[in-house]
């Protein structure tokens, strides 16, 4: 269940019946668990904005709350630094996402590495039936040539049990995952295979970190790029994100 499904507006005033706890952490947790008992709260801390607390959710996403837990906000918090507006929410979420993604062993991914040591890496949530995913895959050799390692994670857009899901399972269970991924991205049949695999787990993680479509590209610093980017532009962005 998405932690954000319960938040339909920018600010929600919670019912007065919510019992207030002795401190902000307890009060905020009480409010959020009343809204959604299984909300994946990892930590609650003061935000840079005085009086506003930030709630770190599993997967790196953020919510904001008042100290008494009576008001919640979903959105971006900016800080003016000179003439520039810095998105503090994006910075914090990117760190959380990077922590989640970089903790996953590459043995659970389909990895295309440069011949020389990689200068940077990207993690791509992919679906084999996605046209732009196929276009991006055709440029993997160019990304490798520019020193970018491409790490694929599964995100079957139509959900568990769909045609895309079954294809991704076959890719992950193939003896040669790279060859199987090449077949899938070329719209060719991948020999059916089953095994213990991380496809469902990766799909769930993708939803948790905010993936809503494919390809979704996670840079080394956790910043997410939704959608296809040409190889030269993507390589430049990836190198700057290390």
Descriptive notes:
Strand 6 and strand 7 form a beta hairpin. The chain has helices at residues 24-35, 88-102, 131-138, 140-145, 163-173, 177-185, 199-209, 231-240; strands at 11-13, 41-46, 52-57, 62-66, 71-73, 78-81, 84-87, 110-112, 120-126, 148-154, 216-218, 224-226. Helices cover 34% and strands 22% of the residues. It is of the alpha+beta class and 242 residues long. It starts with 10 loop residues before the first strand and ends with a helix. It is built from 8 helices and 12 strands. The protein folds into 2 domains: 11-91, Disulphide bond isomerase, DsbC/G, N-terminal (Nuclear Transport Factor 2, Chain: A), CATH 3.10.450; 104-240, Glutaredoxin (3-Layer(aba) Sandwich). The strands form 3 sheets. The chain has a 5-stranded antiparallel sheet with strand order 1-5-4-3-2. Residues 3-21 have low confidence and may be disordered.
């Amino acid at each position: 269940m998405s932690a954000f499904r319960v938040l339909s507006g920018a600010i929600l005033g919670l019912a007065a019946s919510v019992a207030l706890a002795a401190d902000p952490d307890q009060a905020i947790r009480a409010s959020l668990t009343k809204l959604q008992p299984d909300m994946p709260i990892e930590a609650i801390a003061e935000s840079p904005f005085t009086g506003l607390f930030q709630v770190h959710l599993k997967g790196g996403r953020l919510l904001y709350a008042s100290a008494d837990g009576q008001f919640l906000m979903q959105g971006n918090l900016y800080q003016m630094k000179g003439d520039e507006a810095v998105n503090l929410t994006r910075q914090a979420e990117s760190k959380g996402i990077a922590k989640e993604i970089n903790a996953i062993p590459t043995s659970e991914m389909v990895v295309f590495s440069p011949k020389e040591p990689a200068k940077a890496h990207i993690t791509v949530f992919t679906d084999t039936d996605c046209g732009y995913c196929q276009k991006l895959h055709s440029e993997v050799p160019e990304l490798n040539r520019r020193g970018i390692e491409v790490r694929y994670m599964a995100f079957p857009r139509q959900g568990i049990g769909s045609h895309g899901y079954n294809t991704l399972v076959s890719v992950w269970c193939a003896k040669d995952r790279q060859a199987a991924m090449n077949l899938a991205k070329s719209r060719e049949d991948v020999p059916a295979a089953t095994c213990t695999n991380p496809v469902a787990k990766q799909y769930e993680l993708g939803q948790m970190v905010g993936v809503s479509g494919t390809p979704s590209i996670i840079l080394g610093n956790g910043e997410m790029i939704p959608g296809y980017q040409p190889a030269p532009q993507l390589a430049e962005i990836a190198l700057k994100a290390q």
